[in-house]
Amino acid sequence: MGKEKFNDAWTFHKGDLSIERATSDQVSWRPVNVPHDWSVEGPFSSEWASGTGFLPGGIGWYRKDFNLKDYDKNKRYAVYFDGIYKNSEVWINGHYLGKRPNGFIPIQYDLTPFLQADNNLIIVKANHTDYADSRYYTGSGLYRNVYLITQEEHHFSKWGVFFQTPEVSKERATAKVSVELENHGKEISKKTVQIYLKDNDGNSVATSKQDISLRPGKENYLEFDLEINDPKLWSPGSPYLYDLEVNLVEGSTEVDAWNEKVGFRDFHFDADRGFFLNGENMLLKGVCFHHDAGALGAAVPKEVWEKRMETLKELGVNAIRMAHYPHQDFIYELADEMGFLVQEEAFDEWEYGKNKWIEGWNVGTPGNEGYHEAFSEWGVKDVQDMVRRTRNRPSIIMWSIGNEIDYPNDPYSHPVLDEGRNPQIYGKGFNKENPPASHLAKLANELANAVKMYDTTRPVTAALAGVTMSNHTLYPSVLDIVGYNYQEYRYEEDHKEFPERVIYGSENGDALDAWLAVVNNDFISSQFLWTAFDFLGEAREWPVRSSGAGIIDLAGQPKPDFYFRKSLWNNQPMVYIGVANSERDVNRRSNIEEAWIGEEGQTKWITAYTNTEEVELFLNGESLGRKEAVYQNDKMIAWEVPFSPGELLVKGYDKNDSIVSEYKLVTPGTATDLQIQTDKRSSSEGIEEIIHLDILLTDKEGNRITDDDREVSIEVEGPAKLLGLESGDLSSHESYQAKERNTYKGQLRAYIETTGEAKEVNIKISSPGIPEKEISF
């Protein structure tokens, strides 16, 4: 199978058209690079919705004129979209191919009957006029990769190879490979399917082959059983992957080929003892995240996500929840390669729309537009396509069919909401006008069965927000394992009441108590922190246009609470200090700053985040006291210190009284310099690559300035371009299309994309009153 990116040479038109006008040359089109997200182009405006980041929706059209290299009328051609947001419709050479309401699901169309030997025209329409259709930022348009698939008339079906591992141990493992094939000819064709499983050195560790008579217009199906001894098992600490090669051959001629990375691992959840991977009990130190990345919107290159996930590894994360929809295809490949356990999730709503905040989170009158309008027709197919796309990924350990579908009175309700101890989210109690919660079980059962038609190797789950209500329905019993969102207080009593139920934390706050609820209960296996990264949308009132829930900012830079979490989840010795203006802020871990600045004598509170045994604080070389490194729910490690400029230093000691980690803050002088850091100094010829350029506003000694932000301009010369500038400021309304942006707390990240041309790239970075910097690649 030939599969190549089909991202170049698209043009775009914003606004409504007829297909006749879109086909003509009477409309103005501008060239764009796909992936392309037109919403992030803005502008930010209070006329739009806080839920989707105060960014516009609308209707967008895309065109691509193309000639097929080496076109062969006997071959099969298809176009594969990893996602189009949303309500997409596609035409090829004037022929209508189809529609798909869901913007997060991959779509493939057969082009073969309509292609021409010379010029071809593909047109895509995306309709996102219901801009307030989500509780988070979605993006708009061709915001994910597009691929052209070329095959012979006999070939593997879409997602037609399924790799399963029925038995896995350190001594022996078996694999079952299911293969679906298609025959688009008119006659039965005899072929052979060959399977090769290879290690990282290219050695075959298992092989098999079978002959098959491919029947035209019929389902053609084979199963293979493989066995290997002494397998190298996949885990977060050692994410070993094998190469699976499946070849369709006729005689000595290869007709089609399927290549994929696969892994062997054995896992299960236990109602009393939690999660086991490869026979070992382990805790899932998880985070949730959305698909956007600040300035880049939802059109995020693979390298950007790779760098973000490297930051998660540094933190100690071993699990990811894909909130609340299928994400970009390459993220799952990265999860396999880097070692993250994954919860894949399908929906944030089913048959009824949730509240979508327009004026600000929990402010004003919400809207209710959204995916639910397509659910009855498309829900089963959407969840099945989610499963089929990624079911070969060893990283995926559960399928979630929904997030907070049972959010009380939004829209489902139940009489129990008038009774007993209920969290704040239950609002005014039972509302008999709302749909009954009992209906949740029926829909969940339909979706769970739809999943199990294509994969029985992983449990089906959902993230429950209203456990009190759902416990009075059959909804939890339909699930294999039950996720609790922010319901730690229910863990113990529900475990006693439902001893067979596997309970895990599917979405959790960052309080110390929430983590202790995992550590102190053997039957709870996980915490999925909300959230890893700040994200566009789910905003408070204007002018705020993004969520600050992350422990990493929009630019991918760690925030102070990142280091608190690192002290809990990472065993490598570390210590960090932050500064606050009150003891209350220290104990609540709020308003913590990464700067030692202030007025002489002003009272400051210093806190330390560490996994060492003891910590000692020094100001200008003088010890301010040594403390045991112990956190309490209402009292963090803290020193009260009158401000005096200079060096604030903390040392961490191990149990042998050796210094194992240090961290310091220095009072900066005047902003006089820009420090430039980059993750690479060269790029590969012929390959488009992303360069991360981190810009730090500093004094002459290199100390970061956090309270005197400046505008920074970027000029790129050579075969590269600026994709975007991100500061991490949640309230900035600067255009993401501009070549200049203010730093925020002294930081700015630039994303540069190279074209792969073998010429030097020069980047000039300037700011008024500061010497210009230039960096070359």
From TrEMBL:
InterPro entries: Beta-gal/glucu_dom_sf, DUF4982, Galactose-bd-like_sf, GH, GH2_Domain-Containing, Glyco_hydro2_dom5, Glyco_hydro_2, Glyco_hydro_2_cat. It comes from the Bacteria. Residues 272-465 form the Glycoside hydrolase family 2 catalytic domain. Residues 601-659 form the DUF4982 domain. Residues 674-775 form the Glycoside hydrolase family domain. Keywords: Glycosidase, Hydrolase. Residues 58-150 form the Glycosyl hydrolases family 2 sugar binding domain. Residues 163-265 form the Glycoside hydrolase family 2 immunoglobulin-like beta-sandwich domain. GO terms for biological process: carbohydrate metabolic process. Pfam families: DUF4982, Glyco_hydro2_C5, Glyco_hydro_2, Glyco_hydro_2_C, Glyco_hydro_2_N. GO terms for molecular function: hydrolase activity, hydrolyzing O-glycosyl compounds. Belongs to the glycosyl hydrolase 2 family. This is Beta-galactosidase. It comes from Salegentibacter salinarum.
